[in-house]
Amino acid sequence: MSNRPFSFQISETDEIPLRCDNHITRHLSDMRGQFLDQRAYDAIHSKDDVLLYEVYEIKLPEVEGELQHGISVVHPGKVGCEYFMTKGHFHKVLNTAEVYYCLHGEGVMVMETPEGDWSVEEMHPGAVVYVPPRWGHRSVNTNLHSNLVMFFVYPANAGHDYISIEQQGFRKLIVDREGRYEIIDNPNWISPDMR
Ligand code: PAN
Ligand code: ZN
Q1: Burial, 82: exposed, middle or buried (Cβ in 10 Å; 0-12, 13-18, 19+)?
Q2: 41, 77, 91, 141: least buried by Cβ within 10 Å?
């Protein structure tokens, strides 16, 4: 059943949207094996299953024609020298795009095709990133003092393929080097011809 038209307010701060009926939380334990520095991961995890990021959505039917949209909030912090980030995914319907609009904070969108082409786009308030069809994507908060808050919208029937990224990783990692972010090769990335 489809919704009646509706509107709601979001502000350019890290406040949560007033209208939301689906709140997704992801903790360190949801990201096992995704950070490069396993020792740093274990050290943090042994003390606390830290909340890394949250997604606020309005429930919509996951069917063609609907546009899922909401707010993602990536909290500040690091595991080793890697910033807090989302799991990242391809859309299950690979040929579906997504738009992100940054409301607050600083970060990057790491993107990659199944063939191994890659791109990193900077996010800051007012920045829009277009994630084309077929591009896997992950948001990374590169500011250690504030949340990275973004509005996103994508076809509601897109679905999420998390397994591919869990298995092969992203080709590029985003690390902190003396207060600035740096893009490095992921030594554990499995290239398409080795899968
Ligand atoms: C976003 C993401 C959100 C969380 O809504 O789902 O940023 O990231 P993960 O899904 O990788 O945990 C989106 O890209 N939806 O398609
Ligand atoms: Zn997506």
Answers
A1: buried
A2: 77
- Residue 161 CA to ligand 2 centre (angstroms): 9
Ligand 1 nearest-atom number relative to CA 165: 11
How does pLDDT run across 130-182, given as a tens digit for each residue?
999 999 999 999 999 999 999 999 999 999 999 999 999 999 999 999 999 99
Residue of minimum CA distance from atom 13 in ligand 1: 152
Q: Which atom of ligand 1 is nearest to the CA of 24?
A: 4
Do the beta carbons of residue 114 and residue 195 sit within 8 Å?
A: no
Q: Does residue 13 fall inside a structural domain? A: no
Closest residue (by CA) to atom 3 of ligand 1? 72
CA–CA distances in Å: residue 12 to residues 77, 126, 170? 21, 9, 29
Number of domains in the chain: 1
